[in-house]
Amino acid sequence: MKGCFCLLRIQLKHEAKCEVRERERERMRYGGGKRTRVALQPFLVLCALVTGLGLLVLALRPLDAPTTTVPFSRASAFNSSNNGSSVERVESRRVGAKPCATVEEMGKDFRRGVGKESLRVRKIIENHFVANGASRVRDLSPDQFCRHGFVLGKTAEAGFGNEMYKVLTAAALSVMLNRSLIIGQTRHIGKYPFGDYISYSNFTFTMKEIKHLWRHKGCESTYGRKLVMRIDDFEKPIETNVLCGNWKKWKQPIIWFQGTTDSVAAQFFLKNIHSRMRIAALNLFGDPKALGLRPNVFGELMRVLISPSEDVEAAVNWVIGGGENPDISLHMRMHMNRSVRAVQAVLRCLKKAIRSQHLMSSRPKVVLVSDTPAVVKSIKSNISEFAEVLHFDYEKFRGSMFKGLRNSDFRRKDWGTAPRWVAFVDFFLASRAKYAAVSGAHRRVGTTYAQLIAALAAAYNLGDKTGSRFILFSSIQSNLLTNGLKNQIGWGHVWNRYAGPLSCHNQANQCAFTPVLPSAWWDSIWQSPIPRDINRLASYGIRLSGLGTVDNDSLKKHCKKRKNVVRTITFKL
After folding, report:
1. Residue 133: how many CB atoms within 10 A of its CB?
2. Which residues fall within 8 angstroms of residue 264, CB to CB, at 6 or more apart?
3. Are the C-beta atoms of residues 70 and 101 closer than 8 Å to each other?
4. More confident site: 52 or 448
5. Are 110 and 296 in contact (CB under 8 A)?
6. pLDDT at position 392, please?
7. Eight-class DSSP state of 31
8. In 234-320, where do the E strands start and end?
9. Residues 364 and 352: beta-carbon distance below 8 Å
10. Confidence band (pLDDT; 50, 70, 90) for 50?
11. CA–CA separation, 390 vs 291, rounded Å?
């Protein structure tokens, strides 16, 4: 009995435990699940509320205007580096939904003039030529003279604009390197370039005088220093050191920077890999990114270095007739073409220039210059309706110098039918303009000749106050803008750096404020290169993006691996 009782107790305990386990399972299965569901309900409600509010905000929010990205040209497979990636370059040039600009929009940076910066550069140039001018340097002691450096400006008597830039580039380089300037003369006659029409200041040397002084001061015999000239040719991209060389360390007595036919070559030093060269260039030319603050460098150099010869001055004064200087100059480069569209566009632009310079209250004087006599005759009567017209009629002029000179057929279509010397009278006459210059053309606007007219006129009219505001305008007719500025392909033409994909197609006639100092790079917001210029820069070792960004790292690598070319000539004394 006792054993049976024990077995019964064990069985009851086992059943009791099983019942407890079963109740626990039931509690976990049902009771626990209910609590979990109850805990999840607030979370689901919260998610539903957030989702609903989000949908409500999206429904009520106005649609954003799409951001338009300026497209790259196909030729731009290059990447940028420390100047920003290509993507960053595009982002920085987004202007709302506007992918391009008209010429007038591009020119807004130049409407204020650059008086303050030009005065700063004027002081630099004047101080340089006082310190390095011929009158001071020729009196240096033999030891000092024989250690002094020079830059040669040598030119042929071809197109005035291109050839004058060769001299002016040498002058700018002499400022950057703190050297004296030599003006190269013709070999056989010993005359200055265009010496019959232009007088050069006494700040400059001739090669003949340098050779004489080198012998006289014993530079070679006493100090063992030969008269050596180092030649660097800008038109040979593989050989030139314009981007890779530290010209301040060059020891040769004379440097000749060859092939510099426009404003571009001297400004290449702005991207030189050596900081001393870049600083020297920036000090003279200003920051290429701040277009509205770039000084009139070449105008200030001309003001110091050149003036019309006596006979040219007499012809200029004959046109003016003892009265006031003209208010505005108008240059029409027509290549013997009689484009009606060009004439209509330039008349509109001329009126804009008159209004801009507040000359409406009087009858302004306009000096008219063109390579095509037929255009002069047709446009003169139109301008006479609202302004007094001055024009040099060489056939009526009887100056002593020009009697018996015959017309030449050399480059007649390019330079016009007038005798060669007429271009110099026109140049100095147009540079007398007090307020503005207007450039119009059959094809390419703002050629080197027109640039230099405006630059010299701006320098002449810059006083000691910063309020001076001489303005250059470009008149471009609509048929030249079918593909934007794409056809302004001249390397040194004033609108070339705007000719890429950021220039709007199918523009109406444009009358735009224009830089007196043309850009050599594509650093500003609306500047972009054409594929031809991207390829040309590649030959200099520069990887240029479709919007003009320079890959500086790539340039440094190019400079490290390239062969250093040194071309010299030793003069026999």
Report:
1. 18
2. 491, 492, 518, 520
3. no
4. 448
5. no
6. 95
7. I
8. 254-258, 306-308
9. no
10. low
11. 33
